[in-house]
Each structure stands twice: as structure tokens, then as C-alpha cells.
């Protein structure tokens, strides 16, 4: 069966992950001839005026702003057709049209509400719903209603978020390789997922698979899909490590090959936003000078902590 396009893709992301979104988008578009429609979820729900309420129980509140936004996808699609959900901390290496064309029909001839990728048996990781193909014809979700049911105890937080319990008829039958968690198998990995947040390549040079992401960034800049100014803006906002601009200017894809003074500058002046935002909560404290001070203090703290 050949399905019509555009392929609708919704991304779970935040504004500080804008560069990661751009690199992921480039990696998707360059591998397919299909028409693609990629939309960050926070923009989609805001444009559609869809309310994503917070549970009254603090223990049930989402770990990220987009955790609950995923449940708005069927409504965003007007309960018609299908849609793909992805996190933004990913890279795609094969034609995503292959994912789009998967059938919802199961062995028992029932039509699934939602398809996900099975996890490799020897990986030691739990199955994830960070890559999903949603059957919007069947999923009649209203996110406010679902959050209300969560608050009333219909599901635990784990069931709601980690097991996608509101999807009654789901199946982990998407092709293997479309959600490889911190692993890359040449010729087999279709989608690489950078799940180790402190070591995501735009935040740290320590990820052993950082070269793959940085190489994609360099290609996107060379092709004009991402501008140097866009990268500089993310650096100025404190969203990504400063050494990314040095990689672009030098053409060095592997960040481990950067000169030591550049790596040292990262350590002295940059702390990932998910860390400094916890402490510098007021906008007035989130300027460059405050972030530099915090980065230096945090570097000293982590060094002392590692020595104990």
C-alpha cells in the first residue's frame, strides 16, 4: 500500500533544542524524496489552542513540557490519517517513508492504535515510545481529558507515559533499527537516539557517537540548510556548547580532535541548559554573565565531587 504524503512528523522538543531539531530535520529530508511536514509539538499545540493541563498531584507532573503534548497529536490531525512522533535528540540515516508506510494491521487482523519499535533482547533497556506511528483515525484522545483521568488514578505515571496506556491496541512491530538507543550499527541503524542527556553531542564532546551528529551539522551548514548565524544564536542563548562553532569553522567533525584550549573553554564557560535552568530560574539571572559564573562554579563542584 502506498500512502499519500506529506508525511506528518511531530517532534517532542523545547526551544533550547532548536539546533537539534534543525539537524534532525536535515537528516530526515536528505534521505527521502517524499514530501515532509515537520512540526515541533510546542508550536503545534500553541497554534491550535490546545490546552495541556498539569495534574493537581505534583508527583504526576511531566518531566518535560512535551511529555504530555504527544497525546495531542490525533487532535492536531483532526482524528484523520496517521502521524509520526519523534523526540528531537535523534538522527535519521534511512528513508523515513519506510516508517510511514507500515501497516497498522496486526496478525489477529485488528488494526493497531499505535506502533512502536521493539528493543533488542540483549540491550538491557526497556522499550520506548520515543518513536511512534499513530493511527489518528482510531485514537480519539483529548489531552485534557486524559490528564484528568491520570489525576483520578486511572493510570500510574509510568503506565501513562512509559507504557502509553491510553492506547489500548498497540504493537511494537516497527522495523528494528528505527530507535537505536545510544548505539550505531552501520547499515542497520535507521535512527540513532541520543538518550544520555548530559552527553548529547550539542552539549558535550564526550559522547562516543558525537562525530555522527556533528558531521550531519557540518553537512547541513555546507548545504545551506543551517546557517552559521543560527548556530551562533544557540551558543549565545546558552543552549549548545561554544565549541560547535569551532568545528564548523575548522571542518572538524570529531569534537575529540579539537585543540585542548577550545575544549577547556567549553568546561569553563558552558553548562547544559537543563542544569543551569534549575538554578537560574528568573529570566534576569539567565544572561551570559550569570551563565558563565554558574558554569565556572559548576565545573569546580563537579571536579570536587569526582575527587571524593
TrEMBL record:
Gene Ontology MF terms in the entry: glycosyltransferase activity
UniProt keyword Transmembrane present: no
The keyword Glycoprotein is assigned to this record: no
Domain of life per record: Bacteria
InterPro entries with a match to the protein in the record: Glyco_trans_8, Nucleotide-diphossugar_trans
Alphabetized UniProt keyword annotations: Transferase
Entry-linked Pfam families: Glyco_transf_8 (PF01501)
Signal peptide: none
Protein name, per record: LPS:glycosyltransferase
Source species: Phormidesmis priestleyi Ana
